[in-house]
What does this fold into?
Amino acid sequence: MNRLRMIWEKIVTNRKLLPVLLVVGLLLSFAIPKFGLLNQYVVLIIIYVGINIILSTSLNLINGYMGEFSVGHAGFMAVGAYISAILTTKIIPESLAPWLFPLVVIAGGIGAALIGLLVAVPSFKTRGDYLAIVTLAFLMIVKSVIENIEAIGGPRGIPGITRLTTLPWTFIWVVIAVWVIRNFVYSNYGRGVLSIREDEIASDLMSVNSRQVKMLAFVISSFFAGVAGVLFAHVLQFISPRVFDIIKSTDILIMVYLGGIGSIAGSILGAVIFTVLLEVLRPLGMWRMVLMPLVLVLLMIYRPRGIMGLREFRWFIPGYDLFASKIWRKKKEVKDAAAS
Amino acid sequence: MLLQAKEVTHFFGGLCAVDNFNLDLEQHELIGIIGPNGAGKTTIFNLITGVYKATRGSIRIGGIELVGKTPNQITALGIARTFQNIRLFRDLTVLDNVRIANYSQVKYNPIEAMFHSGRYDEEEKRIANHAMDLLAVFKLQDYADEASKNLPYGLQRRLEIARALATHPKILLLDEPAAGMNPNEISQLMEFIGWIRKEFDLTVILIEHQMRLVMGICERITVLDFGATLAEGLPKEIQNNPKVMEAYLGEGGDL
It folds into this structure.
């Protein structure tokens, strides 16, 4: 046991391991489909895990780091999914679609980000429960708008979407999402986000421009929700308004609160556990919908902030953020020694 | 003149919380605002810092009108404050508490933040060092990585002042800094306030109940009662003012 612990300590404190793992992951993501290392079903689950990681990390920015409660994440997903599905089924010729897919993903993300900017505006004035109602209203609006536009299939949705979401693309977008959100969190603006969670009035009085910070957080969060929506549409190959309802939002909320609020590692863990558990429990049939909520109830009682709540895996913390006080102390020692 | 408040009036619904408040603050002054509970002292701080928007009147710093500006804009103009009941960012580290107060001084944009550009690296190093230097001035450097809620009460008060100073203020508003302190600690605090005032080149407004502190260090005192200004003047004058004695002790009282 002690030995295991030591090995684990070595792994988590070794920061050089992360780039190595990323390269190995990227190579694997190409190799697995190419040589058929895993069966189709397992590959599909991995892709869903990836999409869910993007969703939970981006929602964690709002619900965990900023301490708000948004239930509208599925709405941003829907915006990204519909923009991209229209692009790939109606506008871009099929032969070009695989090549233009990265641009399609970005387009879906930008569309969702613009809508996210609109949702940020009410967050200037309201917070907590009231903002939750606002995001719920937003989700309902998105759903009914889509249902009422015949040109995009109305309630029937868009069928026949080409399967463009591959394992390498999923991997790359997961890395981009996690990297950008982590960078943002460990910056001046990210500290602003944290201070809004802790005490919004004190934060404003300490010169934090809370409007700017909220807008940035919502734009980044909804951008990646849109990205996830695009990937989701192009693996499911069929989207309809019903796919992006409150249940979808709740799933993402569960991943965030299961993994842990205010933690990148938690978001990843939550998405992996939730997705895999749902598949593993599939043989139980209807009973898994009893078991999963039960797990949640127990979690909230024994670990209300989630598995990794407000803690971070050391790999995700930038070096001199982690060692800021140590670096300063060393410098001071050198200075003091030189002075004497 | 550094800060000027003219005929500032504020209503909460139909209740007049501050009535016709005037203040002329010269650079390097240290003035006190005293008054019974509910006299409107903290409301005045909230009006100056933009938490509330004054119903009537004007507050100016170096000719710039503050009424209508947001708290973060006012802080960036050089007014910082502490709170009556400590309001640190409790779950964040001592270092982060101070770094957050540097928000308006950071010179990289959101895009650079998202991709951790070279300028981001430079600025983050500068800010971390600046924050640590400031913590060292307040002898808090050893607690840098501790969550601020874990500090003992006295150190939390000190950290709150350090955090306020990290915004680079010209004027510091202290809201009951001696709350919950014993006589010995109050003496230390008096020395401390005098010292930071010199060290950071500050002008200070102080709200306090502890008469010893107010009479000991304030150069001028304003007395409030039910939102109205009851008296203004030197500590000696205030001490002997019959109206003030009446407000504090009832008729025939003696301070």
About this structure: Chain A has a mean pLDDT of 93. The interface with chain B takes residues 180, 183-184, 187-192, 194-195, 198-199, 201-211, 216, 220, 310, 318, 320-321, 324-325, 327-329, 331-332 of chain A (CB under 8 Å).
